Predict the 3D structure of the following.
Amino acid sequence: MHSSSGSHASTAGLAGVQIAAAALALAVYACGSAVEPSRATAASAARSAWPNEPAGLVTVTDRVWTELTGNGWNRRDSDFDRIVDDDSDPPSQVLEYEYPAGFAGGTAPATQYYALGGRKELFVGLEWKPSRPWQGHSTGVNKIQFVYTGSSDVAMVMYGRPGGPYEVRVMPQWPEHGDVWLVPNVSKTSPELGRWHRIEWYLKYETRYGDGDGVIRWWLDGALAGDYRAVKFPRDNGFIEYQISPTWGGVGDVKTENDSFRFRRTYISAR
């Protein structure tokens, strides 16, 4: 090791410095842990569960679905949402949306929603399982989740002909974007029916309205599926509400079997 004058430190001196540095680091770590252990633990757990969450975002909600409402989450009255036991490993309670035989297309069985307060940058992590079998809608549209802006919304969809295969797509529904699907343009992993999937979804408004540098990205089970970095966003006050509202369709069509979507965890961060 060299000093600024070019002289050499002795072996004993180096050992002393290392010991002192280690002791200082341990003291700082212990002090910091004592002050905010829960925050450090929560941040570490979030990074582990959602590895593609951008740095610097602040947790808005982290919901494990053991109740239909609470901690800022609300619901629209429905007979088709419930908390059930899932035989996953390990077993857990989850939020289930039922699509019974006779269910008409164009609506969602239920809706759980959370206010976002006008954010311009958002990350959503979702653990989701479509039932096996699953009767796909005749239009190919099987919606999973929505983010609402002050003037419009953007939907994430399990898309594909009835019977599959399916892919996860995104549809911004504001005029500035135009009536164009955002389809997987990086990898085309198909969600497997009857198993749990981890969806990560990142959305960011343009620097200024009209700049055309907005971002929408999404990952399925850790693999980047769609990456769009020239998205036009609406002129409004940002993201105001998140919804799990899995509309079946499209319009028309009727369920001829009993199907379900299940949700185990919903995580949202923003700035």
Q: What stands out?
A: The chain has two domains: 11-35, 42-270. The radius of gyration is 23 Å.
